Automatic annotation (TrEMBL):
<dbReference type="InterPro" id="IPR036220">
    <property type="entry name" value="UDP-Glc/GDP-Man_DH_C_sf"/>
</dbReference>
<keyword id="KW-0520">NAD</keyword>
<dbReference type="Pfam" id="PF03720">
    <property type="entry name" value="UDPG_MGDP_dh_C"/>
</dbReference>
<dbReference type="InterPro" id="IPR014026">
    <property type="entry name" value="UDP-Glc/GDP-Man_DH_dimer"/>
</dbReference>
<dbReference type="InterPro" id="IPR014027">
    <property type="entry name" value="UDP-Glc/GDP-Man_DH_C"/>
</dbReference>
<dbReference type="InterPro" id="IPR036291">
    <property type="entry name" value="NAD(P)-bd_dom_sf"/>
</dbReference>
<keyword id="KW-0560">Oxidoreductase</keyword>
<dbReference type="Pfam" id="PF00984">
    <property type="entry name" value="UDPG_MGDP_dh"/>
</dbReference>
<feature type="domain" description="UDP-glucose/GDP-mannose dehydrogenase C-terminal">
    <location>
        <begin position="334"/>
        <end position="449"/>
    </location>
</feature>
<protein>
    <recommendedName>
        <fullName>UDP-glucose 6-dehydrogenase</fullName>
        <ecNumber>1.1.1.22</ecNumber>
    </recommendedName>
</protein>
<comment type="pathway">
    <text>Nucleotide-sugar biosynthesis; UDP-alpha-D-glucuronate biosynthesis; UDP-alpha-D-glucuronate from UDP-alpha-D-glucose: step 1/1.</text>
</comment>
<dbReference type="InterPro" id="IPR008927">
    <property type="entry name" value="6-PGluconate_DH-like_C_sf"/>
</dbReference>
<dbReference type="InterPro" id="IPR001732">
    <property type="entry name" value="UDP-Glc/GDP-Man_DH_N"/>
</dbReference>
<comment type="similarity">
    <text>Belongs to the UDP-glucose/GDP-mannose dehydrogenase family.</text>
</comment>
<dbReference type="Pfam" id="PF03721">
    <property type="entry name" value="UDPG_MGDP_dh_N"/>
</dbReference>
<dbReference type="InterPro" id="IPR017476">
    <property type="entry name" value="UDP-Glc/GDP-Man"/>
</dbReference>
<dbReference type="InterPro" id="IPR028356">
    <property type="entry name" value="UDPglc_DH_euk"/>
</dbReference>
Length: 466
């Protein structure tokens, strides 16, 4: 079966880049990305390519190449569903904020709305692809809705989780480590659907990297991959605290253990804590699933990864307060970076938010500079915590477009995101214009300790003992 028309529901961080790359690599497939968010669709359709809703290196060029050729953005969801032979569901699946499973389980209401809409509109057989990250066995719920509320047409459900990381999305999509497709290979229609999706990816992904499994393995593999990745960060962060007490250096420890081919060198950078929309949400979801099967030891094991991450963020802000003579009240502290990692404008679950909240509770004055995150986003992140009023947040935290201005008269600078540009700043100039003693707290381990100490800074680096 040859797919010629794809609809993707959800024009977010995953739907946008993923479909843009499929459109680039498969010019003969027409792809329409739809969303209920009109502003987001308008931004994807904007001719100001610097204002696309998602910033990813290389993405704007692909949008320029494909938009209106075989890639379209629209709010007409019904029409796109009706025309498509294959529908990707790429809507958000946040942690539930209400009812049973509040604070842990994935909220599947957006997925269910999509399934009901597909069922209502579809007049021909369709392949429905789960692109969103979902709890294991969600496909059976989607199938039940489609089969029971549809117009008697046949649906095949595939699971095709996305493994891209933000900031490197385009490269990850062009050269994925693997593409995972879960489907029901026990029936002919299932086999046909799996093959149809394999054929799409085969346009640019080597065959040996396209893995097919049963649906449940595919759904669970996504949660497992994120749990393992986050676990590595929490493990190295746990060791960073021991390093600080003992005089060991976490970079040296990471290097030493990473050279063991069984451990590997990637994802061993100690930090102020992992952020991003996925790790915490997906591990909480995994913990919830384990608990729902009464697997309490399994649940506790994975929950510790999150607890360690909370601890890492809190101890970073505690260290700032303790080092600044146990009070930051009225003192100016500059945050370099607000995004959850470099090369993205995404701030979801960014460690900066928690660290800022802790310091604002201590009445610090914070100045933020981030090269990609908007002022509106930063205030919204703080306001969403509901710790204090919006006016108080605006009063206590200011945002600068110039990093040097942001650092002027500061008592301390905290590095919250590992933007490359921070390494090349004129640190002598920054030092000159700060309060003395001038402190730097490097939560990402990107600055040179020796160089900064020679300038005169009192320098603290995560995972580096005195
Ligand atoms: N962000 C990542 O790096 C990443 C990577 C891999 C997987 N994922 C998973 O992919 C999924 C999407 O994540 P995201 O970061 O793209 O989310 P997002 O919030 O950026 O985008 C989701 C979009 O879906 C839209 N939407 C919600 N309900 C809709 C509906 N009924 N009809 C039409 N549009 C609807 C929203 O308006 C939003 O624009 C999640 O399950 C996430 O866990 C995310
Ligand atoms: O050694 C490391 C690696 C990462 N991080 C932090 O961990 C967080 C997540 O980073 P990363 O995984 O690179 O970005 P995400 O975009 O969140 O991507 C993760 O989450 C996605 C959503 O599910 C998956 O698709 C990706 O495979 C998975 O890497 C960020 O705050 C990083 O700063 C560290 O602190 N140390």
């Amino acid at each position: 079966m040859k797919i010629t028309n794809i609809c993707c529901i959800g024009a977010g961080y995953v739907g946008g880049p993923t479909m843009a790359v499929i459109a680039k690599q498969c010019p003969d497939i027409k792809i329409t990305i739809v969303d209920i968010n009109e502003a987001r669709i308008a931004a994807w359709n904007s001719n100001n390519f610097n204002e696309l809703p998602v910033f990813e290196p290389g993405l704007a060029d692909i949008i320029k190449e494909t938009r209106e050729r075989n890639l379209y953005f629209s709010t007409d969801i019904d029409k796109a569903i009706d025309n498509a032979d294959m529908i990707f569901i790429s809507v958000n699946t946040p942690t539930k904020t209400y009812g049973k499973g509040k604070g842990m389980a994935a909220d599947l209401k957006y997925i269910e709305i999509c399934a009901r809409q597909i069922a209502k509109v579809a007049k021909q057989n369709k392949i429905v692809v789960e692109k969103s990250t979902l709890p294991v066995r969600t496909a059976s719920a989607i199938k039940s809705i489609l089969d029971n509320t549809g117009n008697g047409v046949q649906f095949q459900i595939l699971s095709n989780p996305e493994f891209l990381a933000e900031g490197t999305a385009v490269q990850d999509l062009l050269n994925p480590d693997r593409v995972l497709i879960g489907g029901d290979a026990s029936v002919k229609e299932g086999m046909v659907a799996i093959q149809a999706l394999v054929d799409i990816y085969s346009n640019w992904v080597p065959k040996e990297k396209i893995l097919t499994t049963n649906v449940w393995s595919s759904e669970l593999s996504k949660l497992t991959a994120n749990a393992f990745l986050a676990q590595r960060v929490s493990s190295i962060n746990a060791m960073s605290e021991i390093c600080e007490k003992t005089g060991a250096d976490i970079n040296e420890v990471s290097k030493a253990i990473g050279m063991d081919s069984r451990i590997g060198s990637k994802f061993l950078n100690a930090s102020v804590g992992f952020g991003g929309s996925c790790f915490q949400k997906d591990i909480l979801n995994l913990v919830y699933i384990a608990k729902s099967y009464d697997l309490n030891e399994v649940a506790n094991y994975w929950e510790q990864v999150i607890l360690m991450n909370e601890h890492q963020k809190n101890r970073f802000s505690d260290n700032i307060v303790n080092t600044l003579y146990n009070t930051v009240s009225g003192k100016k502290i500059t945050f370099l970076g607000w995004a959850f990692k470099k090369d993205t404008n995404d701030t979801r679950e960014s460690a900066a938010i928690k660290v800022a909240d802790n310091l604002l509770n201590e009445q610090a004055k914070i100045a933020v500079y981030d090269p990609k995150v908007s002022e509106k986003r930063i205030y919204a992140d703080l306001d969403d915590l509901s710790t204090r009023s919006s006016d108080e947040n605006k009063n206590l935290l200011t945002i600068n477009k110039d990093p040097y201005k942001a650092c002027e008269n500061s008592h301390a600078i905290a590095i919250l995101t590992e933007w490359d540009a921070f390494k090349n700043y004129d640190w002598k100039r920054i030092y000159k214009n700060m309060q003395k003693p001038a402190f730097v707290f490097d939560g990402r381990g990107i600055l040179d300790k020796k160089e900064l100490e020679e300038i005169g800074f009192t320098f603290y680096k995560i995972g580096s003992g005195k």
